[in-house]
Every structure is written in structure tokens, then in C-alpha cells.
Amino acid sequence: MFFRNLTLFRFSPAVADDLNRLDEVLGEYRLRPCGPMEMGTKGFVPPVGRGEEAALTHVVHACTMVTVGSEDKLLPGAVVNDELHRRVQKIAEEEGRKVGGRERKRLKEDVLNELVPRAFIRSSRQRAYVDKKNGWLVLDTSSRKSAENTLTQMREALGSFPAVPLAPEEGPRVLMTDWLANGNLPAGLAFGDEVELRDPASATGAIAKCRRQDLDGEEVKEHLRNGKQVFQLGLTFDERMSFVLGEDLIVRKLKFLDVVVDELGDSHPDAAAEADATFALLTLELERLLGKLEEWFGLPRPAEA
């Protein structure tokens, strides 16, 4: 249940009150199986457990986890085009004529009608939780598109969910460059072993990616002297978690260190108890990290819905 990436949104206290409805509204938006002629479906699935009786939310203190599931048919365009080409060729050979645009379109529809019901189905899950006390929507993804899709599902279920992207008052790229260039790290932070530096002067500027490298080394400093800025920076927070922070404030490669994992223990009586303990630990650790991100970069919580 530990998240591996964090894409973040914020919402107001008024919105937090409305989120108390989550458990009662999600039932109408449960994931249903993909129909024979559908290319995909989306809906909510239980964050913990399986089956129709399992709850669609998992609550610990002020945090509520939800999971959006999807079923998508795998039907590569090349497969469709190959079959369409075969049928067009057959008509040309057997009837001695060319297939026009309108007929080609009808043939393609016939191909899709035959192939879609037989296509393989790929299932996926997107986890997220809302922290009603502090006004965070936290999604376990580094993909902005995936995050927006999950947010759309939540808005559809609630009728409205005005969560907004982060609006930092301090420029992340400038601030992280200062951290690296001058060693002005906030208390509790330490450098990891990777960084991505880019020339901000142009979209095609030089890019330097360093991994498994001392970030205090001369090679990194030379890039900084040449005008490159930090776009992604590996960090360790309070010796409890490591991650790579992007200038878009997406947290990637999040890993909880042994000291945190050891606190979870392995003496839980059942899967539900383990899920409760893991989610509680996850949200407590991230509450501290997100509070610091708010402080360092100036990430105001919306005052109104």
C-alpha cells in the first residue's frame, strides 16, 4: 500500500466537508466489466479486499483512500489495419475493382465489430487518498494524465470536486538550484545520488543526468557554473524516506527507508489490520513531508471552494 509516486492537488476546508459523502456516492460508480463492444470502462474498486461487499473507501483518521479501476481492450491499430488491408486486397483480386473511401470505412467497422469482442482486457488500478484535515489530494502516480483521469472520476461521483494544482509561491527550479549550488538545504533534507540539470535558455538546451553520483562533486558544480538549473533532484527526508523531486513538484521514486518499514512490524492478525496499519503509517509520514513542501515552496491551501 506504500505509494511510489506523488502527484498533488489542494482543496479548501469547505470542500473537505463535502468529502464526507464519498462512501455513500461511490457505489453508483463502481467499476463494471467491459462489455463485448466497449473498448474500456472505468469506475471505483475497493482499496482493500475484493468483491461486491467490500467498501469503496478505506478511512484512517482524516484520510480516505479510494481506488479507480479500469478495464481496457487491447486491440493494436496494426492488427486492425492488417485485417482491413487483407479484405481490401481480396475484393480487388476477386472483383477486379478498387475499394472507395466509404466502403473502406464500412469494412473497417466490420473488422472492429468482429475483433473487439475477442480482444484481451488489461486491468489497471490508480490509488489516491484525500487528507481532509490538511486539504491534500494525493495520487500514487507521476503521470499528470492519469492523475487528471482519477480526479475526473471523483468529480463525476461527487458532482463537483474543486481540487486545484499546486501554485508554488517559490519557484521550485530556482530554489532547488540554490540548494544544490550553495548547500542551503532546509533542516531535515539531505542530497540523494541523482539530479537532472538543464539549460533553461531554450527548449532544446543541454541536459545532464547524473545517477549514483556525489551531488557535491566537481562535475555537478561545473554544470551549475555553466548556467544549468535543477529540474529533478534526489533527496532524503529525515532519514526516513528518499525520493526525486521535480520542478513540477511531482515526487518520483518514493521509497520509505528501513526505519519506517520496521515500525510497521509483521504481527498483524489479518489483512484488514495490516492495511489499516500501513495506511496510517503512510499518511502520517506523508503528512510531515507535505507540510514541509508547503513550507519550503509556499503552497497555499485554497481558502474557498
UniProtKB/TrEMBL annotation:
Keywords: Cytoplasm, DNA recombination
Domain of life of the native organism: Bacteria
One Gene Ontology molecular-function label: double-stranded DNA binding
InterPro entries the UniProt entry points to: RdgC (IPR007476)
Keyword Cytoplasm assigned: yes
Listed Pfam families: RdgC
Location within or outside the cell: Cytoplasm, Nucleoid
Example of a GO cellular component annotation carried by this entry: cytoplasm
GO BP annotations, alphabetical order: DNA recombination; regulation of DNA recombination
Function: May be involved in recombination.
PANTHER family listed in its UniProt record: RECOMBINATION-ASSOCIATED PROTEIN RDGC
Protein family membership: Belongs to the RdgC family.
Protein name (database record): Recombination-associated protein RdgC
